[in-house]
Amino acid sequence: MASDSAVPMSGPRLLFAGMILAVSNFMVVLDTTIANVSVPHIAGSLGISSSQGTWVITSYAVAEAITVPLTGWLAQRFGAVRSFVMAMIGFAAFSMLCGLAESLGMLVAFRVGQGLCGGPLMPLSQTLLLRIFPREKHAAAMGLWAMTTVVAPIAGPILGGVISDNWSWPWVFFINLPIAAVCVVAGIGLLRPAETPTENRGIDKVGLALLVVSVGALQIMLDIGREHDWFASTEVVALAIVAAIGFAVFIAWELTEENPAVDLRIMRHRGFAVAVTALSFAFGAFFATVVIIPQWLQGYLGYTATDAGHVTAFTGVLAVLMSPIVAQLTTRVDPRALICFGILWLGATSLLRAFWNTGADFWTLALPQLMQGFGMPFFFVPLTTLALGAVLPQEMASAAGLMNFLRTMAGAVGTSIATTAWDDQARVARSDLVGVLNQPDQAIQTLQGAGFTLEQARGQIERLVQQESVTLSTTDIFLSAALLFAFSAMVIWLAPRPRRVEAGPAH
């Protein structure tokens, strides 16, 4: 374990070190959303479908999820500062390779490497902020860390859109290089006094291997299932079997291992188990819609990547304003009530999107995004308090790692399922629309009378049918997400009531 012997910094050194850690966390979180609006550009450049382009998002999330629980071991084995610097170097190297990728396979492989290196940077930056700030300023340090976590997803779509439209999509990844270089140099020069003690502690190699195999098989199955007609494919069936057996053996191994890679025994605390269950379902629904919206806007409503980024970025505006207010409320109000309200609010904004259509103007699209930001802090802030407050003090680090692992995995799995359903439902809607299309020949004649050739008229009708069918599929996804939010809001009441709200949830 890391000792508390580190001497807190002060003055300009503290300011610069704090900024470096905040910027590093900002960059890693930014990369979870910056590619969202760039997917159509990437798909067009590499000659792949938009659904295949989402692999760029899910591969990063899955890889990140795998390494988050290993952060504690890395810090104990190599030291927090040394692990931070090495992870940042790796993140920069894979960012460069992502920008140089010439095929989908190369890009996904390099995104996996980027996620593996980026995963530990979030908890390490949090740990080091607490070590360099005096104890009386820990709240301010966590406020700084939380602010970068909230602001980065706002900046991601806007920055990704501007870069994709005005430069080219590789710069979405190249932009990390100068930032990472500054963080590495400053980290070596400023953070060395905050280094943690190390111990030659072994790692659960079997548990780690089982985790990688099972999670990898599940994600690949979800990503390629649609193209291979799901379980009609021997390859998909084999992946499903590997994932199912892998997870079963992984759970059994981790529950009996003395030093597990992922401490599943924490799930014995009902408050923690209920909180992470609600988090997984709600975040899976939330992140899936975050991925689908920019693709729909660019692919079927004619939005540029920049304009799509502006629409989606409204989510974070009220989130930034409400976060400190909700943090104060969490000490006075039952966290379960705040969480329930927040998740139901997210469900209500998802219902608003279920009424979107192809004629919607900018503010019709942006308003639900703006309203969603109001509810996000009610969901994230008290849920973290409830979950981590339900475990023993010595289990806090493992609980945070497991919680982040499940949240990130839920986002990746939710995205894969939602994009598959989105495409399948669009095909069904298209078939239904074609079946009820009244007098297509008359429509063609009308268009020809307006100056269209026969082929142009047929193409125009085909485009309209496709646009409307995808829009119907999109609103179906929002309706399904709303139902999932409602379920998650009810689940949270299965958690026991915290005994001392003013001091945070009791164990």
Automatic annotation (TrEMBL):
The chain crosses the membrane at residues 14-34, 55-75, 81-101, 139-163, 169-191, 203-224, 230-251, 272-296, 308-326, 338-356, 376-393, 405-422, 477-495. Gene3D superfamilies: MFS general substrate transporter like domains. Its main location: membrane. Residues 17-500 form the Major facilitator superfamily (MFS) profile domain. It is found in: Cell membrane. InterPro entries: EmrB-like (IPR004638), MFS (IPR011701), MFS_dom (IPR020846), MFS_trans_sf (IPR036259). Keywords: Cell membrane, Membrane, Transmembrane, Transmembrane helix, Transport. The keyword Hydrolase does not apply. It comes from the Bacteria. It is a multi-pass membrane protein. NCBIfam families: efflux_EmrB. Belongs to the major facilitator superfamily. EmrB family. This is DHA2 family efflux MFS transporter permease subunit. It comes from Rhodocista pekingensis. The lineage of its organism: Bacteria, Pseudomonadati, Pseudomonadota, Alphaproteobacteria, Rhodospirillales.
